[in-house]
Amino acid sequence: MDFFNIEFLLSVHRLNQLPQPELPEIAFAGRSNVGKSSLINTLIGRKSLVKVSARPGKTQGLNYFCVEGQFYLVDLPGYGFAKVPKIMQNNWQSLITSYLETRETLRCVVVIMDIRHEPKEQDTQLVQWLNEKAIPCLPVYTKIDKISGSIREKNARMLDAGHSIKAEERILFSAKTGSGRAELLDALSSRIRT
């Protein structure tokens, strides 16, 4: 999977703005401030193609990035404590749900969780919902560089148990060190080819 030629395509705010369903798509979901933008930038080997913000709720549409003219990366708005009006959050939720349920070219949803925190109900609900809808899901636990190895393993097991995830079904990742990048690339490559 190469990222030599990647460009921002558009930000979708309504379903009728979606590009034609011709290329495979990988979507990235996660609570606000779990490191979603940093993960995508590390994945593609760029520092700031996807804007990183300290302000929760910065991503307000489905942001499409076209990679080598072969597939799309789709950055979804963060969920959780984003300080945006409730009506905007509800609009996001409706758009995201409709997109995930109906997009036939969607190959996988990367669900990003901060390994430092206990299982969050919204993450559990998303993972369960994706499983119920038979939408392929890849959990990624981020920010592993911020805690020691023994705590990292303990927290990973806690998240696995809290979200009913098997250790072999998820990836541990650090945007700072790049740890987990190769595993994530391999996992996404195999899903794009299916």
Q: Your description of this structure?
A:
There is one protein chain. By secondary structure, the chain is an alpha/beta fold. It has one domain (6-193): Rossmann fold (3-Layer(aba) Sandwich), CATH 3.40.50. Helices cover 34% and strands 21% of the residues. It is built from 5 helices and 7 strands; from the N terminus they run ββαββαβαβαβα. It has a 7-stranded mixed beta sheet with strand order 1-3-4-2-5-6-7, with helices on both faces. α4 (149-163) links the parallel β6 (137-142) and β7 (171-172). The protein starts with 5 loop residues before the first strand and ends with a helix. 35% of the residues are buried. The model has no long low-confidence stretch (mean pLDDT 89).
**What portion of the residues fall into strands of 2 or more residues?**
15-25%
Count of discrete domains? 1
Describe the largest sheet: 7 strands, mixed
Total strands: the figure is 7
**What's the helix-strand series?**
EEHEEHEHEHEH
- Morphology: globular
Return Rg in Å. 16 Å
Multimeric status of the protein: single chain
CATH topology (level 3) name: Rossmann fold
Fourth-tier CATH superfamily name: P-loop containing nucleotide triphosphate hydrolases
- The average pLDDT score comes to 89
CATH class: Alpha Beta
Q: How would you write the strand order of the largest sheet?
A: 1-3-4-2-5-6-7
Helix fraction bin: 25-40%
